[in-house]
Amino acid sequence: MKTAKAENKTQDIREELLETIEHLEHILPGQAPIRDFVHHNTLHGFQHLDFTDAIAEARRITGAGGYLPQEKYREYFKQGRIDESDIDNVLENDESLSSADIIADIDGRELTKKEIYRAALLFDFKPITRSQLHWLIQEKHVLSRFQQDIAERSREQLIKAAGKHDLTSETDVIDELWSSCLQKLDLEHFIVHPEDMTDLSANSAEAMINDLASAEQGDDSYQVLMHHLVRKKGERLLSKQLDSIGSEHTLGEFLKSITGEDILNDLRPVIIRHVGLFLDGGMAAWPYIDRTKGFYNTWRAIAKQDLTSVFEDLRDWHDTIDGLADDPLETMIFELRRTGVPEEKWAHYIERIALELPGWAGMFLWHANNSDEPNINMVDYLAVCLVLERLFAQRLCGR
Questions:
Q1: Domain that holds residue 80
Q2: Are residues 192 and 234 in the same domain?
Q3: Based on the domain organization, do 180 and 148 belong to the same domain?
Q4: How far, in Å, CA of 264 to CA of 357, rounded?
Q5: Burial class (CB in 10 A: 0-12, 13-18, 19+), 303
Q6: In this structure, what DSSP letter does residue 293 have?
Q7: Is pTM beyond 0.70 here?
Q8: Is 291 part of a structural domain of the chain?
Q9: Helices 295-306 and 264-278 sit at what angle, rounded to 10 degrees?
């Protein structure tokens, strides 16, 4: 009974992978052999979605951003390339924003969502530390004069409103605004110079940390505590990176994030050379032997001779090639499991592998779907990519 269940599960996994591969037609470029360059729609395969949804989905799959950073848009606003009417047009015409909704009424002054959206678009509301706040007060005089990023219209509105309360100077206006904010938030403002607040003598700092060490580690030293804190921080970051494999990163991308080395730089020429030879139509000076076996099995037959110089320092890589299954789909399943990618992330992982070389993968897929040759299959391409990814990853980790 268990054997039957295992067989059914394996069959389900195979079918899911084949469905994922079939779906690649919607995200890879439909690249036929061409003589001259033609543009490719980067949102190919997402035309059935609304534009904003298509941008988000393309970013999730490919990592390519569809918009400039917020800072760039704010810079354009200051330059006048984006003006008030542009912002109003978007906020008023996007019904999903409900910009006209009133979220507060203060003494007859209605505050709408539109005003909140506008402020969030125009200003970077990142929190600052107490030291940064005091530095801005001392050095930038933020509580006594308008800063350069405050629009002229906003200044005029504040001064006009303050005039009704006999406040005329810029300093009085800002001071009253700050006091109102503190009152609403039930806060008090104590003016302390940053140096008085943050600076400790070396002896005081070491004594404080040693006290923490004693509390947490008994008689352990300051160095032990620092090691403990750094290790904990590293473990959290590593766990986050590992969890991203499959959904956000491939194994190669993960290694790049922690080592700074990109295995794709070495893997790319190998894949391109073999795919080019396999799809060349018999024109290459060094044609592929017996292409009737398909790309995967033909590559497997010559891999040990072709890759000797590449993996000369990698132990047992010949055994890896010799141990590969005849069925490329079985090899895909084996490599995904060996990499440790959870099964629920396999579809995303396959998409990211295919999109590492979208042009060549698209060319291979086009031949698989349009060629009369029965032995061109996208499963072959992906199986070879997964095997090479593991080998190049092992080589990098062994250095």
A1: 70-122
A2: no
A3: yes
A4: 9
A5: buried
A6: G
A7: no
A8: no
A9: 120
Distance, CA of 114 to CA of 139 (rounded, Å): 33
Question: Among positive and negative, which fits the CA dihedral 18, 23, 29, 33?
Answer: positive
- Answer whether 389's CB lies under 8 Å from 263's CB: yes
Q: If you average pLDDT over residues 139-152, what whole number do you get?
A: 83
Q: What is the mean pLDDT of residues 202-210?
A: 61
> 203 falls in which pLDDT band (50, 70, 90)?
low
The rounded distance, in Å, linking the Cα atoms of 24 and 377 is: 12
Helix ranges, the chain (H): 2-23, 51-62, 70-79, 84-93, 113-122, 130-135, 152-163, 170-184, 194-198, 202-217, 222-244, 251-259, 264-278, 295-306, 317-322, 328-339, 346-354, 358-370, 378-397
Structure tokens at 366: 């086009």
Is residue 303 within 8 A of residue 331, CB to CB? The reply is no
User: Who's near 341: CB < 8 A, 6+ residues apart?
Assistant: 245, 246, 349
Q: What is the pLDDT of residues 122-133, one digit of tens each?
A: 888 888 887 788
SS3 label, residue 22: helix
Q: Is 372 left (phi over 0), alpha (psi -120 to 50) or beta?
A: alpha
Kind and range of the H or E element at 105?
A: strand 102-106
CA distance 209 to 133: 26
Place of tokens 């009133």: 102
- Please report the pLDDT score of residue 287 as a whole number: 65
Model confidence over 298-341: pLDDT tens digits? 999 888 888 888 888 788 888 889 999 999 999 999 999 998 88
244, 263, 280 - which closes a domain: 244
The label of the residue with tokens 């080592």 reads 259
